[in-house]
Design brief:
The protein is mainly beta and 140 residues long. The chain has one domain: Thiol Ester Dehydrase, Chain A, CATH 3.10.129. It has one helix spanning 41-60; strands spanning 21-26, 64-74, 83-93, 97-108, 114-127. A five-stranded antiparallel beta sheet has the order 1-3-4-5-2, covered by helices on one side.
């Protein structure tokens, strides 16, 4: 899908659920690759953690901390030049915690644009007070 100026469209992949929100878009740099030329899994995990925190931060209206990475699946390698889009949706809201699902899509090959899912994860965050102790979420 191309814009009139010839650039690839930054559109929502069709497989992204309607209740998911684009929370981060980033392009890895050469310093982010391993000796095989693929982006480090740890770099991707850090980006997923930042993306996953966006919605819980809004719900908690304050500090949060990552308490669990419930599932993390690397589906395809990520390369320099891939533009990564991170979509998040809330799976569960508890008394003090929020669990989110994050899906990561790579836009690659600008000459013949392709969008592929490269990673997905479920993470849980907990609202914390000024001393780092769990606190109840505010009424929604």
């Amino acid at each position: 899908m191309n814009h009139p100026n010839g650039t690839a469209a930054l559109s929502r992949p069709p497989s992204v659920p309607d209740d998911s929100v684009l929370v981060l878009r980033v392009m890895p740099l050469p310093a982010d690759v391993n000796s095989n030329g693929d982006v480090f899994g740890g770099w991707i995990m850090a980006q997923v953690d930042m993306a996953g925190a966006v919605l819980p931060s809004r719900i908690a209206r304050g500090r949060i901390a990552t308490v669990a990475v419930n599932e993390f699946i690397f589906k395809q390698p990520v390369s320099i030049g891939d533009l990564l889009s991170f979509y998040a949706r809330v799976l569960r809201v508890g008394r003090s915690s929020v669990t989110v699902h994050v899906e990561v899509f790579a836009e690659r090959n600008p000459a013949d644009p392709q969008v592929v899912k490269v990673t997905e994860a479920n993470l849980t965050y907990v609202a914390i007070d000024g001393e780092g102790k769990p606190r109840p979420l505010p009424p929604q």
